[in-house]
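Fold this sequence, please.
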Amino acid sequence: MIDKFAKYIPDVQKPTQQMVSFNTKLKWTLLILVIYFVLTLVPLFGLPAQETERFKMLSILIGATFGSLLSLGIGPIVTSSIVLQLLVGAEIVKIDMTSEDGRKKFQALQKVLSVIFIFLEGAIYVFLGGLTAAKFYDPASASFISNFVEGAVELSASQITSLKILLFVQVCIGGFLVMLMDDLLSKWGFGSGISLFIVAGVSRTIFIETFSWLRTTGGEYYDGALLAIFQALSKGDVAVVLSNSLRIIFTLVVFAASVFLQALKIEIPLAPGRVRGFAIRWPLNFIYTSNIPVILTATLLANVSMVLGLIGRFTNQALDQFSVYFSGPNVVGALINNSFTTMLLIAALTYLVLMVGGSILFSLFWVKTSGMDPKSQANQILSSGLQIPGFRRDSKILERMLSRYIWPLTVMGGASVGLLAALADMTNALSRGTGILLSVMIVYKLYEDITKQHLNEMNPAVRKFIKG
């Protein structure tokens, strides 16, 4: 039934050639990036202007721009992946990921779930008040607004309902476009849309939060941290200088720590079974599951925080107070402003435990479902004609040897990346610490993949730059 339903979902054709060239991948990646940034500038018709800057943390994690056509971002894709990882990891849904047929079923199920979550998240955003339909129209500014101003026209109940339905349709269209762009990039470009859109969104946010000369927060200082520092120095405001300086410093610290952790690895010596005197090393990264677990964990927590806030608004319940436990409080800012409390400490510790525990959990699930477990790695090594020197060529022996490294790396790597992301979020680093961590890891992984696959195809000048 799932296979039949998946056939009706639009799909991007796979390349006929075995290896897509570097220039082709670069062309499609740049084209998708341009389309992505253009779509983030397309506003939703019927949405008040003041509704466009909500859920900032979630928008960073899912590569979305709320209030634009891409308000959902990669949220439905990531959420479907979270649900599927939990179902497969708990063996509620039994899929053999070691077989080609099993992997096809997994991809088909993820595609179907993505479509379901596009409609579900679109409904949550629009009908629970995340993206509120306008109540008034101002002819003077030719725009929809939330609050009445002189000369504004109040919309009827039927018109507001029509605007809600129209908002829902627009948001779902944007969700389908993101799903198709992600599919295209995974087949014709570098990496995936999930990774690319996160990096693009985080990079834009860091640039804006560093150099913005606007004052959208209503304060006396610029929104850009660097410009605010110079402005505060001229006024002798030490607290603002310290706060913004620490934001920039912690951003650089997170960058450095992310690169350091990403570069750590264990190398297992291997040798061809029939060739003596020749050896290679099989690398296992310290962050064995890369950035996937922290993406899933942070997105899950951000969604929980968002849903609590929306349900609270919809039911008039005070649920916003619980959302701080899932969104990482600004501990450093509270210490500077002398507003640190016991409740803030409890919220920080809760967020820390949730991030670390969630990253470990999703790391274990990801290893089991993505072919990175000891058994799959052992079969891959043996199929390459390699074996561990001094041991008999046997998959069981190799699996036991790999288990000594893979499972500890899975737990320690997941815990480390979750801890770093949580601590970085609490420092109020530019674009949030989790976003910076994800971007560094994505770019580093992309750099490794490009150098492995396409180094010889590049222009000599580009090759020299890449090799450093």
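The chain has a mean pLDDT of 82. The longest helix spans residues 157-188.
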